[in-house]
């Protein structure tokens, strides 16, 4: 989460970091390699420095896909299921903040092929926030799909989510695991104050949250 008033300053900080580290291309977890491990570590250092100064924060949701029953709960529509999970995440992790602060939010999603209307999604999300948290009006001002290549915040989120997924799926202990990814995932965990990212953080931890979504049902064939 990035305050709108600090968007320009964040862009300047990232521009300076990119120039200094010579990291001009898209930042992605899949691109983490031994040759770039120090650069990605410095990106993590920058992120947590910005967190400490309350200029940015990170919130994530982990879903065990083996528990998802698309046929029973989503009409067999995986795209619908995707947006339902997105709704749950935004409602529970950003809805109360929007109501308590009265600050309208703009949601930026990584661009993807979809037939679902983001305008309709925004309306449903606003209705859910108002009902659950007693809000009024359009606290979610807009929901936009953008190219992550043009959005540094989305790229940082990709690296952090990749590391979380790496630990949750036990890929760091799998045969042939990438040494660079093992090192970076462990580094992120330590910077966040943990020994592993395979955890669920408390709600009071504002700058770095991992929420393990409990579906309450098992996949039925």
Low-confidence parts lasting 5 or more residues at pLDDT below 50?
none
Give the class from helix and strand content and strand pairing: mainly alpha
Task: Give me the side-by-side strand order of the main sheet.
Answer: 1-4
Distance between the amino and carboxyl termini: 38 Å
Oligomer: single chain
Give an overview in words.
There is one protein chain. The chain is mainly alpha-helical and 221 residues long. The chain has one domain (4-212). Helices cover 48% and strands 10% of the residues. It contains seven helices and four strands. The strands form two sheets. The protein has a two-stranded parallel ribbon with strand order 1-4. The chain has a two-stranded parallel ribbon with strand order 2-3. Strand 2 (105-110), helix 5 (118-133) and strand 3 form a beta-alpha-beta unit. Helix 2 (37-52) packs parallel to helix 7 (179-192), helix 4 (78-101) packs across helix 5 (118-133) and helix 6 crosses helix 7. The longest helix has 24 residues, at 78-101. The protein is globular, with a radius of gyration of 18 Å. The N and C termini lie far apart (38 Å). The mean pLDDT is 89.
Can you summarize this structure?
The protein is mainly α. It has helices at 7-21, 37-52, 70-73, 78-101, 118-133, 152-168, 179-192, and strands at 58-62, 105-110, 140-146, 208-212. The strands form 2 sheets. It has a two-stranded parallel sheet with strand order 1-4. The protein has a two-stranded parallel ribbon with strand order 2-3.
